[in-house]
Amino acid sequence: MQHPMPPRWNLQGKTAVVTGAGSGLGREFALACAAAGMRLVLADVDEAGLAQTLAACGLPAAEAVTQHCDVSRPESVEHLARTAQERFGGTHLLFNNAGVLVAGPVWKATAQDWSWVFGVNVMGVANGIRSFVPAMLERGEPAWVVNTASAAGLVCPPDLAVYSASKHAVVALSECLHHELRASGKPLGVSVLCPGFVATGIADAARHRPADARDANPDQDPGLERVREATRAAPLSAAEVARVTLEAVQEGRFYVLPHPPVRAAAEQRLQAIVGGAAPTSPRNAAP
After folding, report:
1. Which of 112, 124, 211, 284 is 20 to 30 A away from residue 184, measured at CA?
2. DSSP code, position 200
3. Is 2 a member of any domain?
Protein backbone atom coordinates (compact mmCIF):
# COMPACT_ATOMS: atom_id res chain seq x y z
CA MET A 1 0.00 0.00 0.00
CA GLN A 2 1.24 3.48 -0.86
CA HIS A 3 1.72 6.10 1.80
CA PRO A 4 -0.47 9.19 1.28
CA MET A 5 1.78 11.91 -0.10
CA PRO A 6 1.09 15.00 -2.22
CA PRO A 7 0.87 14.06 -5.93
CA ARG A 8 4.31 14.34 -7.54
CA TRP A 9 5.76 15.87 -4.39
CA ASN A 10 7.60 19.06 -5.31
CA LEU A 11 11.18 18.85 -3.99
CA GLN A 12 12.14 22.40 -4.99
CA GLY A 13 13.61 24.28 -2.04
CA LYS A 14 13.43 21.28 0.29
CA THR A 15 16.44 19.83 2.15
CA ALA A 16 17.98 16.43 1.50
CA VAL A 17 20.50 14.70 3.77
CA VAL A 18 22.59 11.98 2.13
CA THR A 19 24.96 9.66 3.97
CA GLY A 20 27.59 7.81 1.97
CA ALA A 21 27.56 10.80 -0.39
CA GLY A 22 31.25 10.57 -1.28
CA SER A 23 30.74 8.08 -4.11
CA GLY A 24 28.39 5.63 -5.80
CA LEU A 25 24.68 5.82 -5.14
CA GLY A 26 25.15 8.53 -2.53
CA ARG A 27 26.78 10.82 -5.08
CA GLU A 28 24.01 10.15 -7.58
CA PHE A 29 21.33 10.82 -4.97
CA ALA A 30 23.02 14.16 -4.30
CA LEU A 31 23.18 15.01 -8.00
CA ALA A 32 19.54 14.05 -8.56
CA CYS A 33 18.41 16.10 -5.55
CA ALA A 34 20.45 19.10 -6.68
CA ALA A 35 18.87 18.85 -10.14
CA ALA A 36 15.45 18.84 -8.44
CA GLY A 37 16.29 22.14 -6.74
CA MET A 38 16.95 20.78 -3.28
CA ARG A 39 19.41 22.02 -0.67
CA LEU A 40 21.94 19.41 0.40
CA VAL A 41 23.63 18.13 3.53
CA LEU A 42 26.20 15.58 2.36
CA ALA A 43 27.97 13.19 4.72
CA ASP A 44 30.67 10.53 4.46
CA VAL A 45 33.89 9.38 6.08
CA ASP A 46 35.57 10.03 2.71
CA GLU A 47 36.10 13.79 2.79
CA ALA A 48 37.90 13.88 -0.56
CA GLY A 49 34.97 12.08 -2.16
CA LEU A 50 32.55 14.50 -0.49
CA ALA A 51 34.41 17.45 -1.98
CA GLN A 52 34.12 15.87 -5.44
CA THR A 53 30.40 15.28 -4.99
CA LEU A 54 29.86 18.84 -3.81
CA ALA A 55 31.72 20.21 -6.82
CA ALA A 56 29.73 18.00 -9.19
CA CYS A 57 26.45 19.27 -7.74
CA GLY A 58 27.37 22.84 -8.61
CA LEU A 59 25.34 24.44 -5.83
CA PRO A 60 26.30 27.71 -4.14
CA ALA A 61 27.70 27.51 -0.60
CA ALA A 62 24.39 28.77 0.79
CA GLU A 63 22.58 25.69 -0.52
CA ALA A 64 24.94 22.81 0.25
CA VAL A 65 27.16 21.69 3.09
CA THR A 66 29.41 18.66 3.62
CA GLN A 67 30.28 16.99 6.90
CA HIS A 68 32.49 14.12 7.96
CA CYS A 69 30.17 11.54 9.49
CA ASP A 70 30.73 8.00 10.72
CA VAL A 71 27.18 6.67 10.72
CA SER A 72 28.10 3.83 13.08
CA ARG A 73 28.64 6.42 15.82
CA PRO A 74 25.40 7.85 17.26
CA GLU A 75 27.00 11.15 18.23
CA SER A 76 28.29 11.65 14.68
CA VAL A 77 24.81 11.26 13.20
CA GLU A 78 23.30 13.49 15.88
CA HIS A 79 25.81 16.17 14.87
CA LEU A 80 24.72 15.74 11.27
CA ALA A 81 21.08 16.25 12.24
CA ARG A 82 21.97 19.41 14.15
CA THR A 83 23.82 20.72 11.10
CA ALA A 84 20.76 20.18 8.89
CA GLN A 85 18.57 21.93 11.45
CA GLU A 86 20.90 24.89 11.97
CA ARG A 87 21.70 25.45 8.29
CA PHE A 88 18.35 24.75 6.64
CA GLY A 89 15.72 24.47 9.37
CA GLY A 90 15.34 20.71 9.16
CA THR A 91 15.27 17.75 6.79
CA HIS A 92 12.63 16.78 4.24
CA LEU A 93 14.36 13.85 2.54
CA LEU A 94 16.78 11.57 4.40
CA PHE A 95 18.90 9.01 2.57
CA ASN A 96 20.31 6.46 5.03
CA ASN A 97 22.64 5.23 2.34
CA ALA A 98 26.14 4.57 3.71
CA GLY A 99 27.11 0.92 3.36
CA VAL A 100 30.08 -1.46 3.38
CA LEU A 101 30.69 -5.04 2.34
CA VAL A 102 32.84 -8.03 3.18
CA ALA A 103 32.90 -11.26 1.20
CA GLY A 104 33.85 -14.88 1.58
CA PRO A 105 32.54 -18.00 3.34
CA VAL A 106 30.59 -17.17 6.48
CA TRP A 107 32.80 -19.40 8.63
CA LYS A 108 35.75 -17.14 7.83
CA ALA A 109 33.92 -13.98 8.91
CA THR A 110 35.41 -12.62 12.11
CA ALA A 111 33.84 -10.77 15.01
CA GLN A 112 35.46 -7.62 13.61
CA ASP A 113 33.80 -8.19 10.22
CA TRP A 114 30.37 -8.58 11.80
CA SER A 115 30.87 -5.53 14.01
CA TRP A 116 32.06 -3.29 11.18
CA VAL A 117 29.38 -4.26 8.64
CA PHE A 118 26.50 -4.18 11.11
CA GLY A 119 27.82 -0.95 12.63
CA VAL A 120 27.62 0.84 9.29
CA ASN A 121 24.84 -0.97 7.43
CA VAL A 122 22.37 -1.50 10.29
CA MET A 123 23.24 0.88 13.09
CA GLY A 124 23.91 3.58 10.50
CA VAL A 125 20.28 3.34 9.43
CA ALA A 126 19.05 3.06 13.02
CA ASN A 127 21.10 6.10 14.04
CA GLY A 128 19.71 8.06 11.11
CA ILE A 129 16.14 7.23 12.07
CA ARG A 130 16.71 8.03 15.72
CA SER A 131 18.47 11.33 15.02
CA PHE A 132 16.20 12.69 12.26
CA VAL A 133 12.71 11.17 12.41
CA PRO A 134 11.49 12.72 15.71
CA ALA A 135 12.08 16.24 14.38
CA MET A 136 10.54 15.34 11.01
CA LEU A 137 7.41 14.11 12.80
CA GLU A 138 7.27 17.16 15.06
CA ARG A 139 7.54 19.58 12.16
CA GLY A 140 4.58 17.85 10.48
CA GLU A 141 5.58 18.78 6.92
CA PRO A 142 5.67 16.23 4.08
CA ALA A 143 8.96 14.34 4.43
CA TRP A 144 10.47 11.00 3.51
CA VAL A 145 13.15 8.51 4.55
CA VAL A 146 14.98 6.29 2.05
CA ASN A 147 16.90 3.35 3.51
CA THR A 148 19.36 1.72 1.15
CA ALA A 149 19.19 -2.04 1.54
CA SER A 150 20.05 -4.35 -1.36
CA ALA A 151 18.79 -7.27 -3.37
CA ALA A 152 20.83 -9.12 -0.75
CA GLY A 153 18.19 -7.99 1.73
CA LEU A 154 15.60 -10.08 -0.11
CA VAL A 155 17.69 -13.06 -1.25
CA CYS A 156 20.73 -14.81 0.20
CA PRO A 157 23.75 -15.02 -2.12
CA PRO A 158 26.72 -17.26 -1.29
CA ASP A 159 29.88 -15.54 -0.03
CA LEU A 160 27.90 -12.50 1.16
CA ALA A 161 26.43 -13.80 4.42
CA VAL A 162 27.50 -10.88 6.63
CA TYR A 163 26.42 -8.28 4.09
CA SER A 164 23.16 -10.10 3.33
CA ALA A 165 22.28 -10.47 6.99
CA SER A 166 22.81 -6.74 7.49
CA LYS A 167 20.65 -5.84 4.51
CA HIS A 168 17.87 -8.20 5.59
CA ALA A 169 17.93 -6.25 8.87
CA VAL A 170 17.54 -2.97 6.96
CA VAL A 171 14.49 -4.32 5.09
CA ALA A 172 12.90 -5.53 8.35
CA LEU A 173 13.68 -2.24 10.11
CA SER A 174 12.16 -0.30 7.21
CA GLU A 175 8.99 -2.39 7.15
CA CYS A 176 8.49 -1.82 10.87
CA LEU A 177 9.11 1.90 10.45
CA HIS A 178 6.54 2.01 7.63
CA HIS A 179 3.84 0.60 9.93
CA GLU A 180 4.78 2.99 12.74
CA LEU A 181 4.77 6.06 10.50
CA ARG A 182 1.40 5.09 9.05
CA ALA A 183 0.01 4.86 12.57
CA SER A 184 1.38 8.33 13.40
CA GLY A 185 -0.95 9.99 10.92
CA LYS A 186 1.83 12.39 9.89
CA PRO A 187 2.87 12.98 6.24
CA LEU A 188 6.16 11.13 6.73
CA GLY A 189 6.90 7.94 4.85
CA VAL A 190 9.72 5.54 4.10
CA SER A 191 11.04 3.62 1.13
CA VAL A 192 13.51 0.75 1.14
CA LEU A 193 15.79 0.54 -1.87
CA CYS A 194 16.84 -2.98 -2.91
CA PRO A 195 18.97 -2.71 -6.04
CA GLY A 196 20.84 -5.52 -7.72
CA PHE A 197 24.36 -5.01 -9.02
CA VAL A 198 25.12 -1.35 -9.74
CA ALA A 199 28.36 0.23 -10.90
CA THR A 200 29.43 1.68 -7.56
CA GLY A 201 32.51 1.34 -5.37
CA ILE A 202 30.87 -1.05 -2.87
CA ALA A 203 33.47 -3.75 -3.59
CA ASP A 204 36.18 -1.24 -2.65
CA ALA A 205 34.61 -0.36 0.70
CA ALA A 206 37.40 -2.38 2.31
CA ARG A 207 39.58 0.72 2.01
CA HIS A 208 37.68 1.96 5.07
CA ARG A 209 37.78 -1.42 6.84
CA PRO A 210 39.36 -1.18 10.30
CA ALA A 211 42.91 -2.48 10.48
CA ASP A 212 42.06 -5.12 13.07
CA ALA A 213 39.38 -6.52 10.76
CA ARG A 214 41.78 -6.68 7.82
CA ASP A 215 44.42 -8.42 9.89
CA ALA A 216 41.98 -10.94 11.37
CA ASN A 217 40.44 -11.95 8.02
CA PRO A 218 42.64 -11.01 5.05
CA ASP A 219 41.04 -13.62 2.71
CA GLN A 220 38.62 -11.24 0.97
CA ASP A 221 39.95 -10.94 -2.57
CA PRO A 222 38.17 -13.79 -4.44
CA GLY A 223 34.69 -12.82 -3.24
CA LEU A 224 35.28 -9.10 -3.72
CA GLU A 225 36.61 -9.63 -7.24
CA ARG A 226 33.39 -11.45 -8.17
CA VAL A 227 31.43 -8.46 -6.89
CA ARG A 228 33.64 -6.09 -8.91
CA GLU A 229 33.07 -8.12 -12.08
CA ALA A 230 29.32 -8.13 -11.54
CA THR A 231 29.16 -4.39 -10.87
CA ARG A 232 31.21 -3.66 -13.99
CA ALA A 233 28.64 -5.60 -16.03
CA ALA A 234 25.66 -4.02 -14.25
CA PRO A 235 22.71 -3.26 -16.55
CA LEU A 236 21.72 -0.09 -14.65
CA SER A 237 23.90 2.84 -13.70
CA ALA A 238 23.90 4.44 -10.26
CA ALA A 239 22.35 7.54 -11.86
CA GLU A 240 19.45 5.47 -13.20
CA VAL A 241 18.87 3.89 -9.79
CA ALA A 242 18.86 7.35 -8.18
CA ARG A 243 16.29 8.57 -10.72
CA VAL A 244 14.03 5.57 -10.07
CA THR A 245 14.37 6.11 -6.32
CA LEU A 246 13.33 9.76 -6.47
CA GLU A 247 10.34 8.79 -8.61
CA ALA A 248 9.37 6.23 -5.96
CA VAL A 249 9.57 8.90 -3.26
CA GLN A 250 7.38 11.26 -5.25
CA GLU A 251 4.86 8.45 -5.80
CA GLY A 252 4.92 7.28 -2.17
CA ARG A 253 6.16 3.74 -2.94
CA PHE A 254 7.73 1.62 -0.21
CA TYR A 255 9.64 -1.12 -2.05
CA VAL A 256 12.04 0.19 -4.69
CA LEU A 257 13.38 -2.65 -6.85
CA PRO A 258 14.95 -1.14 -9.96
CA HIS A 259 16.22 -4.48 -11.33
CA PRO A 260 13.54 -6.92 -12.66
CA PRO A 261 15.73 -10.00 -11.93
CA VAL A 262 15.61 -9.09 -8.23
CA ARG A 263 11.83 -9.36 -8.25
CA ALA A 264 12.06 -12.79 -9.87
CA ALA A 265 14.71 -13.98 -7.39
CA ALA A 266 12.71 -12.73 -4.42
CA GLU A 267 9.59 -14.47 -5.71
CA GLN A 268 11.54 -17.70 -6.20
CA ARG A 269 12.81 -17.51 -2.63
CA LEU A 270 9.31 -16.95 -1.24
CA GLN A 271 8.01 -19.90 -3.25
CA ALA A 272 10.76 -22.08 -1.77
CA ILE A 273 9.86 -20.91 1.75
CA VAL A 274 6.13 -21.61 1.45
CA GLY A 275 6.79 -24.82 -0.47
CA GLY A 276 9.35 -26.16 1.98
CA ALA A 277 12.07 -26.40 -0.66
CA ALA A 278 15.79 -25.78 -0.24
CA PRO A 279 16.99 -22.32 -1.26
CA THR A 280 18.38 -21.76 -4.72
CA SER A 281 21.49 -19.67 -5.37
CA PRO A 282 20.72 -16.10 -6.54
CA ARG A 283 24.25 -15.33 -7.74
CA ASN A 284 23.21 -12.86 -10.41
CA ALA A 285 20.72 -10.84 -8.40
CA ALA A 286 22.70 -9.18 -5.60
CA PRO A 287 23.92 -6.98 -4.07
Report:
1. 124
2. S
3. no
